[in-house]
Write a structure and sequence with these properties.
Helix content: 55-70%
Radius of gyration: 22 Å
């Protein structure tokens, strides 16, 4: 953790001069921080990605709910999520005490994240109780497999479905039945 936070300090101190302009390349990429003339910063790619991600989200407001925390854990991974909370804590601690109201919020988020992780949740498609083979058996093909798996992951992250093989497969069968019924109604002229 110390190396990431010190790397962020270096980026802010050396790179983020208030008069310089951030550039984006490509449009949806993280900001590329300009350097001052004569200073060359070289970091391993993984460290650079971690730092830029934490800089990007350092002032994000995270809702205090298990569903939102699961989403953030999915987005960043547990290690980066706790690094983000550490960065936000440092940012909040640097403010005047009268304006520092986020520390309690960050403690509660850390507690919620600990509780969520204690449940050993499914945070990625790989951790789902079903995989591509089961979807192939149901008749899914090509990109539809990935889309169905991501939809299942969304339901698991929101807490609307348990990460159990039978529940996930039943959900997909229900969706397929609704689609088939909708197609029948469309072609038969019923509404």
């Amino acid at each position: 953790k110390g190396s990431i936070t010190s790397s962020i300090s270096i980026f802010f101190t050396i790179c983020a001069a208030p008069t310089e302009i951030y550039t984006l390349s490509p449009p949806d990429a993280l900001p590329i921080l300009p350097t001052r003339p004569g200073i060359v910063l070289r970091f391993p790619r993984r460290t650079r990605e971690q730092v830029l991600c934490l800089v990007r989200y350092h002032d994000a407001v995270i809702e205090e709910s298990p569903q939102r925390v699961r989403r953030w854990l999915n987005k960043l991974g547990p290690e980066r999520f706790f690094d983000l909370l550490e960065i936000q804590r440092g940012d909040a601690s640097a403010q005047a005490p009268a304006y520092c109201t986020r520390l309690d919020h960050l403690r509660r988020l850390e507690k919620i994240a600990g509780e969520v992780l204690a449940e050993a949740p499914c945070l990625t498609v790989r951790e789902l109780a079903v995989g591509g083979r089961e979807l192939l058996a149901l008749g899914y093909q090509g990109p539809a497999i990935g889309m169905a798996l991501r939809r299942l992951l969304d339901c698991v992250l929101e807490g609307t479905l348990p990460n159990e093989k039978t529940a996930l497969l039943q959900y997909l069968e229900q969706i397929d039945a609704k689609k088939t019924e909708g197609k029948r109604n469309k072609y038969s002229g019923e509404t």
